[in-house]
Specification:
By secondary structure, the chain is an alpha/beta fold. It contains five helices and six strands, in the order ββββααβααβα. The strands form two sheets. It has a four-stranded mixed sheet, with no helix packed on it. Strands 5-6 form a two-stranded parallel ribbon. The chain is globular, with a radius of gyration of 15 Å. The mean pLDDT is 91.
Length: 163
Amino acid sequence: MKQHTVIDSPYGALTLVAEGGVLCGVYMTDQRHRPPQESFGDRDGRPFGAAEEQLAAYFAGELTDFTLELRLNGTPFQRTVWDRLRRIPYGETRTYGALAAELGNPSASRAVGLANGRNPVSIIVPCHRVVGANGDLTGYGGGLHRKRRLLDFERGTAVPELF
């Protein structure tokens, strides 16, 4: 059974979704590949205490590594990519090609990009930390403006403000 809640963040409203009490989704408003609202289950904030606390600490600049239990629903390849994303240190970036090489298939950068774009747990699984081969910002389900702001925030060059 799924449940959801909506919280405010410096990057706009975030919809948190849990399945069986375990966080399985963090979606931004107007996020590409966002599932239909009716698939999120009943609105109930009870399963989200730890997620809300850690997100608040992250936005306050006090947390750089999330320790939440996650239920990442996707293909085996997608879950492997999402696991790699969680290993990118706070404030750093990796290219799609570098991630593909880490997975043992340097020619799979496009597949890595597709999996990255389907990440169901934005911010916590830091898909915003992946950039193009030349370092340019490319693709982000929450919009390039949010990706830029998240990266600037993590690099200490911007303070999050209400979206």
